[in-house]
C-alpha cells in the first residue's frame, strides 16, 4: 500500500531570518527614538533661548515622529505573531496599517500647523533680533537626522519593510525642515525688520513638508493593504526558485500578496502530464520549500499543478 509522502521541512535558518528581521527592524526604530528625543531636548533649549516659531515647529515635528515610531514598533510586534484560527494568513497587515495611520496623523498635524502659521504671517508683531548663532540648533539636528536616516533606510531596504522605509523618510524630510529652520533663523538675524515674517515663512515650509511626508508614508503602506502588485523582482525570485526544482517544466500564473513581514504566494507549476499524483505532489512540496528558502518572508505557498505541453505558451 502506498504511503502518504513525507512533508518537506524548511531549514532552521529560514525561521532564524524571520526572527532576525523583527529584531533589526525594531532595534532600528528604537535607535531612531533615542536620537530624536535628544534632538527634541536640544531644540527646545533653543526655543526657550531664541523664541523661534520655525525651531519650535521643527521640534514638534520630531516629537510627532517619536509618537509615530512608538506606534510603528507596536504594530511591528503585532505583525510578527503567527497565524491563528481567526487570522489564518497571519497578522502581517498590522505593519503597513501602522505606517498608514502614522502618515495620516502627520498629514493632519501638518495641515493644522500650516493654517496657524499662515494666519501668523498676517498678524502684526514687533520685530525680533535673532542671535547670529541661532542656526547651530537646527543644523546640529539636521546632521544627526541624516545619520539616522542612512542607518534606518539601510535596514528598511534589507528587510523590505515599507513601514520602516516610510519612517526612515521622516528623518530625511525632518533634516530638510531643520535646514529651512536654519535658513529662516540666519535671515531673521540679519534682517530683523522681517524677522517675524521670515520665521513664519520657514515654519510654513516645514508644515508643507510634514503634509507631503504624511502623504508619501500613507500611499506606500496603503498599496500593501489593498494588495497592489509588488515589484517585478519578487516575481522573478519566485519563478527562479520554482524552476530550480527537478521536474518543473515551466511556471504560469504567479500571484503575490506582500504586506509587512509576510508574503503569500499562489503559483501554477507545469509538470509532465504523465506523472502520478504522488510524484506531482512531492514536486509541489519541493517548490514550496524552494521558494521559502529563497525568500524567507514567504509564510505560505499554494502550488497548483498543471500539465505541461510543449508549444502551449
From TrEMBL:
Alphabetized InterPro entries for the sequence: Cation_efflux (IPR002524), Cation_efflux_CTD (IPR027470), Cation_efflux_CTD_sf (IPR036837), Cation_efflux_TM (IPR058533), Cation_efflux_TMD_sf (IPR027469), CDF_Transporter (IPR050291)
TM region(s), chain numbering: 31-50, 56-76, 97-115, 135-152, 173-194, 200-218
GO molecular function, one term: monoatomic cation transmembrane transporter activity
Keyword check for Kinase: no
All residue ranges annotated as the Cation efflux protein cytoplasmic domain in the record: 230-308
Gene3D superfamilies reported for this sequence: Cation efflux protein transmembrane domain (1.20.1510.10), Cation efflux protein, cytoplasmic domain (3.30.70.1350)
Lipid bilayer topology: Multi-pass membrane protein
EC number(s) per entry: 3.6.1.-
GO CC terms: membrane
Superkingdom of origin: Bacteria
Main location: membrane
Keyword annotations: Hydrolase, Membrane, Transmembrane, Transmembrane helix, Transport
Cell compartments where the protein resides: Membrane
Boundaries of every Cation efflux protein transmembrane domain copy: 33-226
Similarity annotation: Belongs to the cation diffusion facilitator (CDF) transporter (TC 2.A.4) family.
UniProt cross-references to PANTHER family, sorted A to Z: MITOCHONDRIAL METAL TRANSPORTER 1-RELATED
Protein name: Cation efflux transporter
Gene name of the encoded protein: czcD
Amino acid at each position: 500500500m502506498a504511503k502518504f509522502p513525507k512533508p518537506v521541512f524548511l531549514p532552521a535558518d529560514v525561521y532564524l531570518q524571520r526572527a532576525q528581521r523583527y529584531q533589526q527592524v525594531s532595534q532600528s526604530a528604537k535607535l531612531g527614538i533615542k536620537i530624536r528625543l535628544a534632538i527634541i531636548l536640544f531644540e527646545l533649549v533653543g526655543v526657550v533661548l531664541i523664541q523661534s516659531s520655525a525651531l519650535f515647529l521643527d521640534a514638534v515635528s520630531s516629537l510627532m515622529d517619536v509618537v509615530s515610531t512608538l506606534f510603528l514598533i507596536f504594530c511591528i510586534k503585532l505583525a510578527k505573531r503567527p497565524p491563528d484560527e481567526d487570522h489564518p494568513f497571519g497578522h502581517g497587515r498590522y505593519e503597513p496599517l501602522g505606517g498608514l495611520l502614522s502618515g495620516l496623523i502627520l498629514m493632519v498635524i501638518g495641515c493644522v500647523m500650516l493654517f496657524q502659521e499662515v494666519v501668523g504671517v498676517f498678524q502684526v508683531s514687533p520685530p525680533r533680533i535673532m542671535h547670529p548663532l541661532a542656526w547651530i540648533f537646527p543644523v546640529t539636528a539636521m546632521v544627526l537626522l541624516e545619520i539616522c536616516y542612512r542607518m534606518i533606510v539601510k535596514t528598511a531596504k534589507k528587510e523590505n519593510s515599507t513601514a520602516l522605509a516610510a519612517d526612515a523618510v521622516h528623518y530625511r524630510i525632518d533634516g530638510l525642515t531643520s535646514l529651512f529652520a536654519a535658513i529662516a533663523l540666519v535671515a531673521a538675524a540679519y534682517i530683523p525688520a522681517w524677522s517675524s515674517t521670515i520665521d513664519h515663512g520657514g515654519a510654513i515650509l516645514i508644515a508643507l513638508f510634514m503634509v507631503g511626508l504624511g502623504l508619501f508614508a500613507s500611499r506606500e503602506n496603503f498599496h500593501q493593504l489593498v494588495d497592489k502588485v509588488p515589484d517585478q523582482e519578487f516575481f522573478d525570485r519566485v519563478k527562479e526558485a520554482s524552476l530550480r526544482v527537478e521536474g518543473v517544466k515551466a511556471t504560469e500564473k504567479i500571484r503575490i500578496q506582500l504586506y509587512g513581514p509576510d508574503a503569500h504566494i499562489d503559483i501554477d507549476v507545469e509538470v509532465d502530464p504523465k506523472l502520478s499524483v504522488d510524484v506531482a505532489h512531492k514536486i509541489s512540496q519541493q517548490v514550496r520549500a524552494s521558494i521559502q528558502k529563497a525568500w524567507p518572508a514567504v509564510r505560505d505557498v499554494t502550488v497548483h499543478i498543471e500539465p505541461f505541453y510543449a508549444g502551449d505558451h
